[in-house]
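sry for the spam today, last one i promise. struct tokens for design, 379 residues
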């Protein structure tokens, strides 16, 4: 039989049931595995993990993160397969994948009946091979979520160009010279971010985009590439970066090239990380853009509820986009404190499994009421 303390935990918050009693009388917490890419000194994924674990603590479940180096995209398929097949089997999974990783993992997930979310965006060809959307070719691929990567790249590009124009950071030809440091091309989101930058520059007749160079997301990569771009295009004043890590390297390179950040050298990143916020506050970044880490809490709540008989098919739907926002030096305090919101939330209040009277998900209280520079604030 289950011990009394576990029964108390099961009943302590409405109908929230974090424990499962097996036939041998043992009570076990549900376990969710989380696959994510990583790189040296990564500023993004540790904060995602921190957020997911805060949610898991409230819901009484376990989140088990597994990081896979971006240098070896095949390791996720191989090592990930072993994790999924390990005994005991995970109760659910959240996967952030690069090109070619989804199908082999989903085949295992389907065989083992593990409900799974995939973070996109996936390459269109790969998405088509998976049935186009969740629950078509793979029943246990239950949900698909992503951020509006093109819009993020566009917003950062627009803000950088605006800052350069305000400071009259023009070249001898009267134009704003722009270069970019992109991410890993095995992830479709990297290409979308680049497309956003291209759109921002294309809309500005006074701007010229020289080149966008891919990277492996690290600070040394950002610094090395930025140095090379400045040497190749000496009049460059704007270096757009596909992550906060890359922007840190770009800021260092701009300073070493004799540029004054915020005057004739401008950069920023696409993570909305705490480190990125620090660089905004000290004037090294113009902006950091992305989906707040708190938005990952929604995904875990949807998965938790699904495991307890509350399907999210109609609310919010099988595919959904996480909210984006941009923080600059002019952003209100509510935007900056949003990065630590999870520490003040009881996530059980937002779960339908924990609250049978809750008919529609509403996470609006997690975010600033008037988001800054936010044109893609989607459900």
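last one done:
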């Amino acid at each position: 039989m289950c011990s009394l303390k576990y029964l108390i935990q099961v009943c302590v918050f409405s109908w929230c049931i974090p424990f499962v009693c097996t036939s041998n009388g043992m009570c076990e917490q549900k376990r969710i595995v989380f696959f994510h890419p990583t790189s040296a000194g990564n500023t993004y994924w540790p904060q995602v993990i921190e957020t997911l674990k805060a949610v898991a603590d409230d819901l009484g479940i376990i989140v088990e993160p597994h990081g896979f180096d971006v240098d070896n995209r095949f390791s996720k398929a191989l090592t990930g397969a072993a994790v999924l097949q390990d005994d005991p089997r995970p109760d659910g999974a959240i996967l952030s994948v690069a090109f070619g990783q989804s199908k082999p993992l989903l085949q295992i997930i389907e065989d083992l009946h593990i409900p799974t979310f995939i973070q996109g965006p996936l390459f269109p060809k790969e998405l088509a091979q998976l049935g186009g959307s969740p629950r078509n070719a793979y029943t246990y691929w239950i949900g698909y979520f992503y951020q509006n990567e093109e819009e993020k790249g566009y917003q950062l590009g627009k803000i950088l160009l605006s800052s350069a124009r305000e400071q009259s950071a023009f070249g001898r030809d009267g134009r704003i010279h722009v270069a970019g440091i992109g991410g890993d091309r095995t992830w479709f989101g990297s290409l979308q971010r680049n497309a956003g930058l291209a759109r921002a520059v294309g809309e500005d007749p006074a701007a010229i985009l020289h080149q966008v160079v891919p990277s492996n997301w690290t600070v040394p990569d950002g610094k090395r590439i930025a140095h090379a771009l400045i040497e190749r295009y000496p009049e460059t004043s704007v270096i757009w970066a596909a992550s906060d890590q890359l922007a840190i390297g770009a800021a260092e390179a701009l300073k070493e090239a004799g540029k004054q950040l915020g005057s004739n050298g401008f950069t920023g990143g696409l993570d909305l990380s705490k480190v990125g916020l620090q660089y905004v506050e000290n004037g090294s970044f113009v902006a950091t853009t992305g989906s707040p880490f708190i938005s990952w809490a929604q995904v875990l709540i949807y998965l938790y509820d699904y495991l307890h008989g509350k399907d999210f098919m109609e609310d919010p739907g099988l595919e959904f986009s996480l909210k984006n926002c941009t923080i600059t030096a002019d952003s209100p305090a509510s935007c900056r404190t949003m990065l630590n919101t999870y520490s003040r939330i009881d996530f059980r209040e937002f779960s339908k499994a924990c609250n049978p009277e809750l008919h529609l998900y509403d996470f609006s209280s997690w975010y600033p009421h008037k988001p800054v520079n936010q044109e893609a604030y989607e459900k």
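The chain has a mean pLDDT of 87. ok im logging off now
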